[in-house]
Prior knowledge:
The structure is a single chain. The chain folds into three domains: 14-212; 217-308, Translation factors (Elongation Factor Tu (Ef-tu), domain 3, Beta Barrel), CATH 2.40.30; 321-445, Nucleotide-binding domain of ferredoxin-NADP reductase (FNR) module (Rossmann fold). The chain is built from twelve helices and twelve strands. It has helices spanning 14-38, 46-67, 73-79, 81-109, 124-144, 146-149, 153-178, 185-215, 331-343, 365-372, 399-405, 421-433; strands at 218-226, 230-237, 250-255, 265-268, 278-284, 301-308, 321-327, 349-356, 376-383, 393-394, 413-419, 441-445. The longest helix has 31 residues, at 185-215. The radius of gyration is 25 Å and the shape is elongated. The site of flavin-adenine dinucleotide (FAD) has 21 residues, from β4 and β5.
Amino acid sequence: xIHRRAVTTHVHGTAxxxxxxxxxxxxxLVPLALxxxxxxxxxxxxxxxxxxxxxxxxxxxxxxxxxxxxxxxxLIAAFxxxxxxxxxxxxxKAAVVLVWLHLVAVLMEDPRGFAIxxxxxxxxxxxxxxxxxxxxxxxxxxxITRSRRQPRYEGWRLVHNALAWIVLxxxxxxxxxxxxxISKPLLAAWFFGTGLLVAALTVRRWLWLPLRARRRSYLxxxxxxxxxxxxxxxxxxxRHHGVPFNAGQFAWLKFGSTAFVFxxxxxxxxxxAVRPHLKxxxxxxxxxxxxxxxxxxPGRRVFLDGPYGGFTIEGHNGASGxxxxxxxxxxxxxxxxxxxxxxxxxCRRHWLIxxxxxxxxxxxxxxxxxxxxRLNLKVVEVISKPGPDWIGETGRISGDLLARYLPRNPxxxxxxxxxxxxxxxxxxxxxxARGIPLRRIHTERFGAV
Length: 449
Ligand SMILES: Cc1cc2nc3c(=O)[nH]c(=O)nc-3n(C[C@H](O)[C@H](O)[C@H](O)COP(=O)(O)OP(=O)(O)OC[C@H]3O[C@@H](n4cnc5c(N)ncnc54)[C@H](O)[C@@H]3O)c2cc1C
């Protein structure tokens, strides 16, 4: 089995800090420094230099915004998928502002003024820029109104990706047709380098990853209904040893005759990392894809893109124990961690605090009971809408409840939180208030996409 180096989902880790630094460096300083080195003061006046610098930084920000969600494993492991997407959105917003400023600067500087938008008579460089800007503003408009319009996720994703590629390609062509930048060797190297990087990541994302998933496909072995609108899928590696993963990680799942189908959804693996050839996923029916899963027949071919994520117990060998706090279907990565610990005969003390609205909605109870018998594990169930027979904890996971069950001296314990964003946020806050260092608090939110 492969044990990868530990990573946390928090942006406080060293890898994350270096990642942030490199991203900003690439986005901001590199193109500016190269422009400065390449162009002498006599080549541009101040207005032209400002317009060009804004354009280059905007282009660079667009490249970073496209690279971030391109499924680069170390990046997802270092930041966590939710942080990656948050940075992606912030950088995209910054790019929009920079494009606006670039446009204003060009209009102030270019003697042709608004005539550059006359597509019939303007240059190819200006046509490409107009196309890129329109696609960018359209993309941002659709993203901003998404929560109000509630489009089908797959349709939205398709349009978003298509527009992103139009924005980047036409921005690239704009610089290419302007010519004066790529005539400078340093700027040309940066420009072609970024183009090549994006092209390579695109080929990897849309060709190599599906091909790899096809080579290491799985067959659906069992479909088991779970209480509370859930289903557990068991899949077995088809003629390979199973893709190794770290307990707590997730993968994108696809069903169909080919690994190139567009529809795919991320789910945490719930089975033990000790037997990667046999994987399980427990999935709650929430929408059009997840509602269909209980009707699947064993024998279906399943393609997996993954594993991804840094929400894992691996690498915390110095930890004195793990405290896992989950709500609803957020129990899934925890079960994988607990099963893995049990299979490794881990003898440290662990805690699992799990919350649901009703007892019926508590997921995977028999499986948790099974690992509890094999581990030194304290399980606390918290029900927010209890029936008359419930004698356990009620309400929400609060600072008060944590104080009653968790050890007073946190020592070298590590905390894993998974569930709806408000719960993760509130409990992280409670833990921080108890003096737990942020680097020991690891979080995953399923609804962050
Ligand atoms: C890292 C991670 C791990 C997850 N693990 C689990 C798990 O173990 N069990 C479980 O039940 N759920 C899990 N989820 C949530 C699960 O991915 C969504 O519930 C599922 O994709 C919903 O799809 P749908 O078409 O049925 O619902 P829809 O109504 O179409 O979607 C509901 C919401 O789910 C999200 N979503 C939908 N499709 C995708 C997609 N292709 N990629 C990313 N997000 C999407 C969007 O936010 C969307 O608004 C996880 C999510 C993430 C990000």
